[in-house]
Amino acid sequence: MLALIHIRFFEQPLLNNFLASFTSLFSVVNPLGMMPVFLALTTEHTPEYRKLMARKACMYVVIILSFFLLAGTFIMSFF
Asked: Which pLDDT does position 63 carry in this prediction?
């Protein structure tokens, strides 16, 4: 019974697309690899400034990825 539920859970195309997209974007953005770089670049700053810069960086990433999500097909049609 549990195996049947497991198979049906992964047969859903929305879940498959989400998992494929998430793993692809996670490897491109690489937050674990960028963490030491961010900490090294902000060693002289206060914790408040670090939080502000981290929020700004996250917002920029969300904006850029959203833009390419919406315009990516149009851009790729040129090639």
From this structure: 94
